[in-house]
Amino acid sequence: MKADHSLDCMGLYCPMPIVRTAEQMKEMKPGEILEVVADDKGIKLDMPAWAQATGNEFLGIEEKSGEIKVYVKKTHE
Asked: How far apart are the C-alpha atoms of 69 and 4, rounded to whole Å?
């Protein structure tokens, strides 16, 4: 999936990937896509819940060799 921004959260554990995602989303425009790269398996449950709670769109997960990529689209200011 092609993303407009990428956020490296490797080595960070809950809640830091979500905290960093929230900070990055503030800098983005509606319609832009953020790729979050993490190795904390908790992000697979936390990110869809965060996206739903904040009204942003969760686009999916890719996982390969312990690296988890999650994609979120900013839907509003």
From this structure: 14
